[in-house]
Amino acid sequence: MKIGKSVVKLLAVMSACLVLGGAWPTQAQEPLRVGMIQPLSGPIAAAGSYIVNGAKIALDRVNAKGGVNGRKLELIIEDNKSDPAETRSAAEKLIVRDKVPVIIGAWGSSMTLAMMPLAAQHNVGIVVETSSSGKITDPKTPGSKVVSRISPTSELEALGVEPLLPQLGMKKIGYLAVNTDWGRGAVVAFGDVIKKQGGNVELVEYVGQADTDFYAQLTKFKAAGVDSVIITDDAPKTAKMLQQMKELGLNAKVLVTGGSAWPDSIVQLAGAAASEGVMFINFYNPYDYSLAGDPEASRAYVEEWKKRGLPWIGVVEGMRGFDAVNLVAQALATAGDPTPAKVQEALRRAEMKGLYGLIKFDKNGQSFSNIILSQVKGGKYAVVGVTPSTKLWNAAAAK
Amino acid sequence: MIAELVQHVVNGLVIGGGYALMGIGLTLIFGIMRVVNFAHGEFYMLGAFLLFSLFGSLGINFFLASVVAIVAVGLSGAIVERVVLKRLREQPVEIPMLAMVALSVILQNAAILVWDPSPKTIRHPFSPIPIVLGPIHVVAIRIFAGAAAVALIIGSHLFIQKTRLGKAMRATFQDGEMARLVGVDVDRVYTGTFALGAALAGAAGVLLGSVFWVYPAMGDQAAMKSFAVVIMGGLGDFLGAIVGGLLLGVAESLGAAYISSGYKDAIGFVVIILLLLFRPAGLFGRRERLR
Predict the structure, then answer these.
(1) In what order do the strands lie in the sheet with A147-149?
(2) Does A193 reside within a domain?
(3) Are A352 and A274 found together in one domain?
(4) Do A259 and A127 sit in the same domain of this protein?
(5) Looking at the structure, do residues A169 and A263 belong to the same domain, yes or no?
(6) Structural domain harbouring A353
(7) Nearest Cα residue in chain A from B261
(8) Which of A26, A129, A394, B211 has the fewest CB atoms within 10 Å, measured from its CB?
(9) Cβ <8 Å between A223 and B132
(10) Which residues does chain A have within 8 Å of residue B8's beta carbon, measured at their own beta carbons?
């Protein structure tokens, strides 16, 4: 019983601190609060934590420059546990209880899709920072009207990398994708482009979001004699797939889509031997600031990432959070009155030079990003080719 | 064709060995203590992370670090039993169950704080170059994990059959009240059971964590699989958990290979539904027995 009493006392003290602590900021000017939903637990928690890291770097930069219209910018960060249903609950909490004017989120396509109808119902805008499924900005999808997406769709990735495909010489392809809207969408998008280039996706295999063993799928690839493998999944699982390919003696060219895995992360996670020669579709290169829409912001971001001692392998993923917060800060500033409707309008009209490239939105709320084809060469980062976002914008305008 | 089939079966058996270890731990705890251990996956995760820290960060010998990690998870199981479950013994069955749900959330989030959520690889001393037997490829770490799982399963079987504590465990399983009357220290049996169950989960984490990788949420899926194994084998059935684990591993591997990899997890559960339709008391159809 003694323990019980001291716990009660502790709780009393803690709640008193909360009440008092909570009372102070209201005396100053009320900060602007923006919602962010990321996977911070569950199988893809690492990716979500990198995005939050990037977002915090942008947040501190915005506030160091005096905030937004004289008010401090704040992020209310919610964990979606890598789960679509939890994403919807988190969005409901942010919209109904915290009354945020805009939400950044929610990494996975299935997670983002799960919260879109609810956000649309309350007319709260969503800035999508990572998800790639084409469905999200398809006007037929419920809730797509409130979406402003800075990450490219799988179709845009395929389009951006198309000119580089012939030199890769991928003929007989096995496709290994995560069993979500992201993976399933990418299989369709890349299948189309590969076919145009004379290759053929002979086998498509899916893996669960929390799977660790891919022997069954890879054994099938080996038996079918594929010469190339395309992977659509996050960095840790991609690394394991590459290791297991080596273990099973499956030698093939590998292309990794989606922008979350990149040479440095895969070399660290899978080792140099398993990752040599592997190619990646990326949207950001932390070694070449000139490729970003705003080279100065790119330099500042990378330097701050290093200064904070954050894991280097997360720097390419963290960029998404950095751009999303900067974009939201800009939209809040131009909207003047931070109501959901005004902020959403400002977002759709926004134009920003970000790390993704030139960020602006077409009529469906989709932006185009730089598409970089990178490769592990001698255990180091190398660039194979680049399609700048401006080129994609011009091509779209010409159509 | 045959070679591919053999490769799939070998793949499934290695993973199944891990499932079996998890399942035995869970089935022992349920069979003897009537506690549904929702924190089982977190003991699995703890085993893997302890190995990661002892071997990966402190540089202790891999095999020694593995043993220390397993023993430490067993000890933490004993502490959980003494501090949490012992107080709840007279409570209805859902109270200890909820306590274990809470423990699972606490442990997983503590792991995120201590080790951060990014996945870690255990750089085990085995060669990554596969051993090639005709068309079959196996890497040494998987052979080691499979063999160690078999050794641990046999070890715990002997422990339950031959030792004094093991006999007391079986007696408590048959009739707790009666065992108490003839002088069995039931408190000790409970602590020992929970420690053993947790240690087996920790061992599965040590082995599979070395084969795959280590991250705070790794216990979620492992726990789900071990519940499946226990239901398949029959609640409280030691042999059933072993066969159930291997069966689930092979069914998933073959299902992913010959039906659809998109339904890999579903296939395991379809097998369970079929099994429950035809043998509702589990594989061996025994109602209450500990062997």
Answers:
(1) A73-79, A32-38, A102-105, A125-128, A147-149
(2) yes
(3) no
(4) no
(5) yes
(6) 29-152+289-367
(7) A206
(8) A26
(9) no
(10) 215-216, 219
Please check whether residue A20 lies inside any domain of the structure: no
Total domains present in chain A? 2
Q: Could you tell me if A242 and A307 lie in one domain? A: no
Per the rule left: phi > 0, alpha: psi between -120 and 50, beta: everything else, A125 is beta
In a domain, A8, yes or no: no
CB A274 within 8 A of CB A242: yes
Domains of chain B with CATH codes: 2-278 (1.10.3470)
Query: Which residues have C-beta within 8 Å of that of residue A115, sequence separation ≥ 6?
Result: A37, A87, A88, A90, A91, A103, A105, A106, A126, A143
Give me the mean pLDDT over the B194-221 stretch: 93
Q: Could you report the per-residue pLDDT of B234-267, keeping only the tens digit for each?
A: 888 889 999 999 999 999 888 888 888 888 888 8
Tokens 């295999």 belong to residue: A205
pLDDT band at A27 (very low <50, low <70, confident <90, very high): very low
The CATH number of the domain holding residue A87 is 3.40.50.2300
Whether residues A181 and A103 share a domain: the answer is no
The pLDDT mean for chain A works out to: 90
pTM: 0.84
CB interface of B with A, residues 74-113, below 8 Å? 108-109, 112
Measured between beta carbons, the chain A residues lying within 8 angstroms of B109 are 41
H-helix or E-strand spanning residue A381: strand A380-387
Residue of A nearest to B137 (CA): A248
Q: Please, are residues B26 and B97 in contact by the beta-carbon 8 Å criterion?
A: no
Closest chain B residue to A217, measured at CA: B257
Test A273 with B11 for CB contact under 8 angstroms. Answer: no
- Cβ contacts of residue B5 below 8 Å, gap of 6+? none
| A19 located within any domain | no
Pick from A44, A49, A207, A212 the residue to mutate for testing the B interface (most B CBs within 10 Å). Answer: A212
Whole-number Å distance between alpha carbons of B169 and B160: 7
Kindly give the residue spans of alpha helices, DSSP state H, lying in B163-237: 164-174, 176-181, 186-211, 218-233
A167 lies in the same domain as A211: yes
